[in-house]
Design goal:
- By secondary structure, this protein is of the alpha+beta class.
- It is built from 4 helices and 5 strands, in the order H-E-E-E-H-E-H-E-H.
- Strand 4, helix 3 (86-99) and strand 5 (105-108) form a beta-alpha-beta unit.
- Helix 3 packs across helix 4 (112-121).
- The chain is globular and about 50 Å long.
- The chain starts with a helix and ends in a 13-residue tail after the last helix.
Amino acid sequence: PAVLREASKFFQVMTEGKYVRIMVPLGEMRLEITPQQGKSRTTDVLSRGTAEQLYLSMRLAFVREYAKHAGPLPLVVDDIFVNFDPGRAKAAMKILGEIAQTHQVLVFTCHPHVTQWFQETLPGVPIRPIPKSA
């Protein structure tokens, strides 16, 4: 339940309030999501980007829960914003900024616009470009 509560908060932020809750129906092994308005639905109706935001929310909630019991570990992600629109990507970046208060967070990307979004969303975030090979 704690993971689902935390993941629901992350998912609500990432989807800019469109979805407000993640749950697992009693006795089942699947996720359902609840929109701000309307009834819960299964994850198979989600776009690829929204599904990736759901799974990222779950992963980040597991990271937080694990850290409570074993201590924080570094979090490494690679091009997780590929299917996010700019607004949702920036919302997710704010969450990563929050996670970075207690964890080392390394984000890899080959997309210059993602670097720009980070600079806009989290001013002062250290960005280390990797030199191109000759």
